[in-house]
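Suppose a colleague, Dr. K., hands you the sequence of a protein chain of 281 amino acids and asks what its three-dimensional shape might be. Before reaching for any lab equipment, you can write down a predicted structure in token form. Begin with the sequence itself:
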Amino acid sequence: MEIFKEIHPLKTFLTDKRTQGSLIGLVPTMGALHRGHVSLVQASRKQNDVTVCSIYINPTQFNNPDDLLKYPRTLEEDLGMLKKAGCDAVFYPENTEMYPEKSVLRMDFGLLDKVMEGQYRPGHFSGVALVVCKFFNVVQPDHAYFGQKDFQQFAIIQKLVDELKFGLTLHRVETLREPDGLAMSSRNLRLDAIEREKAIVFYQSLLKAKNAIAEGHPISIAKKIVEEEFQKRSVKLEYFEVADSKNLNLLESVNDTKNRPIMCIAGYVGEIRLIDNMFLD
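The predicted structure, expressed as tokens, is then:
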């Protein structure tokens, strides 16, 4: 496994692979890897000859400076995990490599980045899109892989690919969960034992909401069910919404769309912010 900290050597490495006819897959991450990230690497290896994983904690997507400082950093463990998973190259740049000057570029995705995460984290998706553009331009992958847990992010990056005509295919990989249903997340590392037990409310609430809607109850009732579940566990609910998975229009009824609806949820367990989602089938 090759490790690169600078853009030019990585591009030289990939140019050589590309001239040999190799397909290239990209898995962008911010480190603190878990089995969910490994599943992205595995998906890439099935479709590509070369898999590149980036590890970069992108400062432009953090609204809270304290959150940036506290984000888990586990480089040695990450590299060991990637090597074992069969990753071919790791791109681990410094901030000065990615942002030699302070960036002033801002991106707007209309409704896509105004609801849910966009409402509570203004500017977040502009930062995400900016760094993803940089990775796409540096790596020039044939395929790129993102987890379903960050579904709104995936929808925005799909829009980015479509609008800017990046010559690649995006893949959304299903969320991996712990045995009790908690979605795997780098932020889970920051939960203490009591918080970890409380965190299963995200998954359990989504299941109860899904069952309620399947039984014919309106979305408003599903929202009340979720709110009550969070109150019982003293966990702060930030939002629970049902959205059109294609355009992220927020729905008052599942009959308001012909597309696949998705439930999205966010909240705080102590100081740790977690998100999750689940499709309505």
